[in-house]
Design brief:
The complex is a heterodimer of chains A (about 300) and B (about 300). Chain A is built from 15 helices and no strands. Chain A is mostly helical. Chain B has about 300 residues and is mostly helical. In chain B, helix 6 packs across helix 8, helix 8 packs antiparallel against helix 11 and helix 11 runs antiparallel to helix 14. Classes of the chains: A mainly alpha (about 300), B mainly alpha (about 300). Chains A and B meet through helix 1, helix 2, helix 5, helix 6 and helix 7 of A and helix 1, helix 2, helix 4, helix 5 and helix 6 of B.
Chain lengths: ~300, ~300
């Protein structure tokens, strides 16, 4: 620490810092590389384990690369892994997750963007009050609302179905998404809205023809936020669906933590990777937008 | 993150009719229903029914504070609270420390900043279930880290948190920090980027060292960022559930139970709704206790300038 102090005091963060191997730099990069190893280790171990056969796992060490690579664990995780009596693998959970994900994302973003638009351009008496309640509601622990929602879904006849879960995701995605859209629409110059009003455009016309085309980046952020959030959800999935409609995360947990049978660690790790693949791909493909999304989404729940 | 208060609009002067802007009101109906029925209604319902003796089905048989008395004399709840306390304090300190240190390192105009940032943040894209299962495997005593270190020759090495009730919370902590610290790093980095470069020049002129500048000048300037980070971490700690279910299942025994899990087990497995409601009301109280000082700091502090 003392080295860091003396060296950088002489050259505070400016472009002048050219010496590649100053002690400060060694310290900095050393720290960063060490920490990176901690962050990369689980991903590496998962990949390596999922490519080994069981005999090799029993012999060797988790960090060693596979001697002979086999893709069988991946195939088994996808199509044969068992949860209870069902042995059709994670593919079922994947299908359920997709069928939950698509309507949830579309519905929650459609509703939240209209909310945000109404809140920033068509304020009415009480609109801010409802919005404030909505935002405060985002901080209430989900546990407090779990059972009343069970009752509501039962009354609607949606308990255990995919559409029930879609509704739940739409409701709980609303605070953060509405905030996101409201802030964005408020930053669009009001003159634009007024000019459209003078030209006789109505609520929906302004929304579809002016606001939506201007808000495309924020729609992308919202999609990233919702896709990762809904895909990774476990709590709502485990409570509001039944075994036939379990999303992928719940099924994964049941496969790996099942007590019957011999533990097949390679299949488990392949299944875990398969479940993590969708958000990982989104993360690495979206880059900066993801950061924007999570910075906004971090307040959720 | 924060909700800026909106100045009153000019349109408030016209006589306000119920049907003015009726389309906007119709379109906001889902929001209004969510806010009033689910958030306010649902919470009020749960709090109300926490004073009943509901077992399998909610009933209006009032029992006063019985459920709360039973809750606080239940071993399982006390273990849950203690666990959450240990996990919470460690997680708060470590996440803030790691998040800030990494952000400060990345802010020193280093090469490959983007690569490092991606590495630190990617776990945040993964779910707690995936996180928990991955670390469960790494911490596996027979094949994981412990056995590898023993094979290297250090045969007395003993690190088996998932089967040792005394340190199981630290096993969870390793995984929790792995998943969540990248986000805090991101927030801290944004905060550091917002600090005027001239501060560093001034510190140089005055001959103040880098570390000292960080501690004495930069961190106090970043107070709002720290407060935001604190609230985020605290909110995440209270809802800790998936990670425990996936990584330890609450075990060994009851040694890694947490309040969120207690609520769900009591409500949906033990069919003791009243207990579940009382426990979730306590969770609500803890959130209120955290949020009120935050709201006070956030909004009270802004007025003072």
């Amino acid at each position: 620490m003392a080295d860091l102090t003396t060296n950088t005091a002489a050259e505070p963060r400016g472009p002048k810092l050219k010496k590649a191997f100053s002690r400060t730099n060694i310290f900095l990069y050393g720290t960063l590389i060490m920490v990176s190893m901690y962050y990369l280790l689980p991903l590496y171990v998962m990949i390596v384990t999922s490519l080994k056969g069981m005999p090799e796992i029993r012999l060797g060490n988790v960090f060693g690369p596979p001697m002979d690579i086999t893709f069988e664990p991946w195939v088994r995780a996808w199509s044969e892994a068992c949860t209870g009596i069902n042995c059709d693998g994670l593919s079922r959970g994947f299908g359920n997750s997709v069928r939950i994900l698509i309507p949830s994302v579309l519905l929650s973003i459609a509703i939240a963007s209209v909310n945000g638009y109404a809140l920033s351009n068509w304020k009415f008496k009480g609109s801010e009050v409802f919005f404030t309640i909505l935002i405060i509601g985002a901080f209430i622990p989900y546990q407090t609302m779990l059972y009343p929602i069970v009752i509501m879904l039962r009354e609607l006849g949606l308990m255990g179905s995919i559409w029930g879960l879609v509704l739940v995701h739409t409701v709980f995605g609303m605070p953060i998404l509405t905030l996101l859209f409201r802030n964005y629409f408020s930053s669009i110059p009001e003159e634009l809205f007024k000019a459209a009003r003078v030209d006789g455009a109505g609520f929906w016309q302004i929304y579809f023809q002016i606001m939506v085309p201007m808000a495309l980046p924020i729609f992308v952020v919202a999609i990233i936020l919702q896709v990762t959030g809904i895909w990774n959800d476990f709590l709502f999935g485990v409570i509001y669906t039944k075994p036939a409609t379990y999303p992928m995360t719940v099924q994964l947990n049941n496969i790996v933590n099942s007590v019957q049978g011999v533990k097949e660690y390679n299949v488990n790790m392949a299944a875990t990777l398969l479940t993590g693949l969708v958000p990982l791909v989104i993360y690495f493909a979206s880059g900066k937008l993801f950061v924007r999304g999570i910075a906004a989404g971090a307040v959720k729940g | 993150m924060t909700v800026p208060s909106v100045p009153p609009t000019l349109s408030g002067k016209r006589p306000s009719k119920l049907f003015k802007n009726w389309m906007a009101k119709m379109a906001s109906l889902p929001m209004i229903l969510t806010a009033l029925v689910v958030f306010v209604g649902g919470t009020a319902w749960t709090v109300t029914y926490s004073f009943t003796g509901s077992r399998m089905l909610p009933r209006t048989k009032w029992v006063g504070l019985d459920q709360y008395e039973r809750l606080w004399s239940s071993d399982r709840w006390m273990i849950s609270i203690t666990n959450l306390g240990i996990y919470g304090i460690c997680s708060l300190i470590l996440t803030l420390f790691i998040g800030f240190t990494l952000a400060a390192c990345l802010d020193r105009k280093i090469r490959f900043e983007g690569v490092f940032r991606s590495i630190f943040l990617y776990p945040f894209a993964l779910s707690f279930v995936v996180t928990g299962l991955a670390w469960q495997w790494i911490l596996n005593p027979d094949f994981g880290m412990q056995s590898v270190v023993r094979d290297w020759g250090w045969t007395a090495f003993n690190f088996d948190p998932l089967n040792n009730p005394d340190i199981v919370m630290f096993g969870l902590l390793i995984a929790g920090i792995w998943q969540g610290s990248g986000l805090i790093m991101c927030i801290m980095l944004a905060g550091l980027r917002g600090i005027d470069e001239d501060i560093w020049k001034a510190a140089k002129v005055d001959g103040i060292g880098t570390v000292k500048t960080y501690i004495m000048v930069v961190i106090p300037m970043m107070r709002p960022v720290f407060v935001t980070a604190l609230v985020l971490i605290a909110a995440g700690i209270i809802k800790l559930y998936d990670l425990v279910v996936a990584q330890t299942g609450g075990g060994p025994g009851l040694s890694s139970e947490v309040p969120a899990k207690y609520v769900i087990e009591l409500m949906f497995r033990a069919q003791n709704l009243g207990q579940g409601f009382a426990a979730s009301t306590m969770m609500l109280c803890s959130v209120v206790i955290i949020l009120i000082p935050w709201a006070y700091l956030e909004f009270g502090g802004r007025k003072r300038g």
